[in-house]
Each structure stands twice: as C-alpha cells, then as structure tokens.
Amino acid sequence: MAQFNDISTFEDIKLLVNTFYSKVQKDEFIGPIFNEKIGNRWPEHLEKMYRFWQTILLEVHSYSGSPFPPHKQLPVAKEHFDRWMQIFTETTDNLFSGPLADEAKLRAKNMAEMFNYKIDYFRNLEKSQTDNS
C-alpha cells in the first residue's frame, strides 16, 4: 500500500483543490450544477478555494468572506451534498494521509451538512411566505 504524506503546504492545498474540482466538473450528477453556476470563472473559483482551505488547514489567514451566500440559491439537495462529499473524501484519501487530511474531510462534512441544512431552511421559509401570501 502506498504511503501518503499529510497536507502541509500551499502546494498540497492546490493539489487537493485542483484534483477535487477537476473530478467535480466531470461528474455527471453534480458537474452540470457547478459548471452552470461558475461558467468560465473556474480560475477565480479555484483561487478562492485555495485561500479558503489554506485558512482552515494551514492557519494562514488568506480567505475572508462568507462561503454560504453564493450557494443559497443552488438547485441542490442532500444527494448532491452526499456526492460532493464522496468525491472530496475519495480525492483526499487518494492524495494524503494524516491529521490535516482527516481535518479536511471533517470540515468538508460539517460544511456540507450545514449548507444543506441552511438551503433547506431558506427554501422552506420562502415556501411558507409564498403560501401565506
């Protein structure tokens, strides 16, 4: 079995993000959603993701912003987050091993669950407001 190093550098972050999103773009289930939303802005999205994960995993505070709002109106459900998480976990496990790799998977899982919960919440809120008007 191959021995993998842990995530420890900005180059590791870039490898994880680039590998993960190249799989996402090609995925039949979630790829079309990402490709439609991001369009030709993939380089900017990847740069933002590098900074996001660098801040979370390497404690280099290069990301600022609120990650949820751009996702609020996406046409996604739990199955989409499950697929996203499956690809993220497989990508991480195929590239890295160690405490920061485990932290990346945990943070991704928590984020997917929170985003899914918040998207459902706002959808239900909008639906109830529409139903009551």
UniProtKB/TrEMBL annotation:
Gene3D superfamilies: Globins
GO molecular function: heme binding; metal ion binding; oxygen binding
Amino acids binding heme: H71
This protein's UniProt keywords: Heme, Iron, Metal-binding, Transport
InterPro entries the UniProt entry points to: Globin-like_sf, Globin/Proto, Hemoglobin_trunc
Official protein name in the record: Group III truncated hemoglobin
The organism's taxonomic lineage, starting at the top: Bacteria, Pseudomonadati, Bacteroidota, Flavobacteriia, Flavobacteriales
